[in-house]
Amino acid sequence: MELWYTEEHTPTVRFSIKIKEQLLSKKSPFQQIDVFDSEEFGRFFTLDGLMMVTEKDEFIYHDMIVHVPMATNPQIKKVLVIGGGDGGTVRELTRYKTIEHIDMVDIDQIVVDVCKKLLPFTSKKLSDKRVNLYFEDGLKFVRRFENEYDLIIVDSTDPFGPGEGLFTKEFYGNCFKALKKDGILVNQHENPYYESYSSAMRRAHKRIKEFFPICSVYQAHIPTYPSGHWLFGFASKKYDPIKDLDAEAWNALKLDTKYYNTDLHTGAFMLPNYVKKALEQVD
Fold this sequence. Notes:
The protein has 283 residues and is α/β, with parallel strands linked by helices. The protein is built from 10 helices and 12 strands.
C-alpha cells in the first residue's frame, strides 16, 4: 500500500509527497505535530497538516532568513528568534562567532522536543551555550524589552492558530521598541501567488511599514512551500539591505552555504512585477 502526505494549498490545489513511513503523530496543547520520512525529501514535519521543514530543502529557508540580515550588518551581537522550533534558524546564527547571545522563544515546547529527537539536522545547535530557550507566547515575550536586540527574526507559522498574534500591528510595534536604534527585523512573509497567502503578505507588509523607516521584501524559491515562491520581510531603523550590504566582510567569513551568496542577496530584492504591484497597493 502506498502512503502519501497531501497538503491543500488552496481549495483547488493540492501538493503530495510519497512517504516511506510516519515517524510520529502527536497532539500538543497548541497544534497537531506529525513527522514523516520520504524518499525524495527525507524527513519532514508538519504542524496542523502544513509543511514546516524538509530535510532536503530546509537550507533555502534558513539561509535566507539568517544570512541576509547578517550580511547587511555583520556586527550583530544579540538576536531574538520568535518561533523557529525546528532549530534551523538558530543553527545558522550559531555559525557566526561574533554573535554573543541568542534568545529563542517558541510557544510549544513539544515541537522543540520532537525536533531535537527526530530532526537533528536542524536542531543540533539548540544546545549551544549562547542559546537561551523560552517556551511562551512570543507576542507577550517581546513586550518586556526596549532597545535590547540587534536583530529579531520572526520564524513563525502561518497567520492563524498559534502564529496568528505574530502578524498583528501590536506585535510589530513591540518588535520596533525591542530593537536597538540600528536594529533589523526579518520575518517570513508568506507567498505572493495564492490569494489567501498574498492577502496575509500585504497585511503584514502594511503593518510593518507603519513602524519602520526602511521596509523591503525579498524572495526565495522553496519547492515544498505553497507555489514554491516564498517571501521574506526586511525592516530596519537604519540599514538598507542593498545599499548597506557588506559583501566583503561577509565573504571574508568563508561560511559554506548551500543557497545564499552575496550576489543572490542583491538579486533577491528584485521582485517580479506582480509582486511589486501587490506591494504598491499597500504603499
